[in-house]
Design goal:
With 297 residues, this protein is α+β, with helices and mostly antiparallel strands. 25% of the residues lie in helices and 32% in strands. Strands 7-8-9-10-11-1-2-3-4-5-6-12 form a twelve-stranded mixed beta sheet.
């Protein structure tokens, strides 16, 4: 990374720094305000950032269970929230909710929820269940087919979820802000990995071929609290820039839509004795054919 890009990154992540400082690892409705001098930091050498990141990610990955929250904001409005739990040896599970109306930065509750989706990953299988299914589909679990993406969330992959494998793809570049025991590390991820944090809907807006993905990165911010990684954030505007750098394109409307996105993944250590995720029983499972014909389970 050149020094010039480090300065640009520090500037681009200034808003992220403020959001993390004010709202914590779970996101929130904090608005950008003038940054206190105590939280400003000159970009550090990449070697320092790498050492800090490696020391901070190790205690998180040492846990048998990692809890994660995946939030997608459009402007200040929360569009999707997924809360999940990943197990080192035994798959993962998650629940996604979406609001009836965009507008609030808080996760919807009660009558504010448009619908919810539960997903379980066991072995090579992904199972999903939608709250909006009516009998005879209600209460059933769909065993997804090859290439099928639950809820269009590209990080919902068999085995380990992309929300967690993201941690292994981070390339620390510089420490861009620090305030007490909290700091923000600017990092790069391959564009292919960054896109995995989006949805099939976003991917459909990009005029980008598979052969254009290699060799291009997108910057992200990594939050470290008390010496442990607690969050990663990707700005839609940086994703747009990366797509252009890769030789891709977007329409003006698509660029405006993607550019206002903010994607945040928060992490916490889960209890080591948490009940392991299990596949639904056979009489609860249905196939895509069962869904299409309305047979259910």
């Amino acid at each position: 990374m050149t020094y010039g890009r480090g300065v640009r990154r520090a500037t681009a992540l200034a808003v992220l720094t403020l959001v993390l400082t004010a709202a914590g690892c779970g996101g929130g409705d904090a608005q950008p305000v003038p940054e206190p001098a105590s939280s400003a930091a000159s970009p550090s050498p990449s070697g320092d950032a790498t050492a800090l990141f490696e020391a901070a990610v190790e205690p998180l990955l040492d846990h048998q269970v990692i809890d994660f929250t995946y939030d997608v904001y459009s402007g200040d409005a929360l569009a999707i929230e997924t809360r999940g739990r990943a197990y080192r040896q035994a798959g993962w599970k998650a629940r996604t909710t979406s609001p009836k109306e965009l507008g609030s930065s808080e996760a919807p509750t009660g009558d504010q929820i448009k619908g919810s989706m539960q997903v379980r990953a066991v072995g090579d299988d992904l199972y999903m269940q939608l709250s909006t299914w009516e009998p005879p589909l209600a209460g059933c679990w769909l065993r997804t087919g090859g290439g099928q993406v639950p809820g269009g969330q590209l990080a919902m992959t068999p085995g380990a979820p992309g929300y967690v494998t993201l941690l292994g793809a981070l390339q620390p570049a510089a420490v861009v802000a620090q305030d007490g025991d909290r700091l923000v590390i600017g990092a790069d991820v391959p564009l292919r990995v960054g896109l995995q944090l989006t949805t099939t809907g976003v991917l459909g807006l990009l005029q980008l071929g598979a052969d254009q993905l290699d060799g291009t990165t997108v910057p992200v911010g990594v939050e470290v609290t008390a010496g442990v990684v607690t969050g990663v954030e990707l700005l839609g505007s940086d994703l747009v820039d990366a797509v252009h750098s890769a030789g891709g394109d977007l329409t003006a409307d698509a660029e405006a839509t993607v550019g206002q996105l903010r994607i945040a993944v928060a992490y916490d250590a889960g209890p080591d004795d948490a009940p392991r995720v299990e596949a639904p029983s056979d009489d609860e499972v249905m196939t895509n054919d069962d869904v299409r014909t309305g047979r259910g389970c």
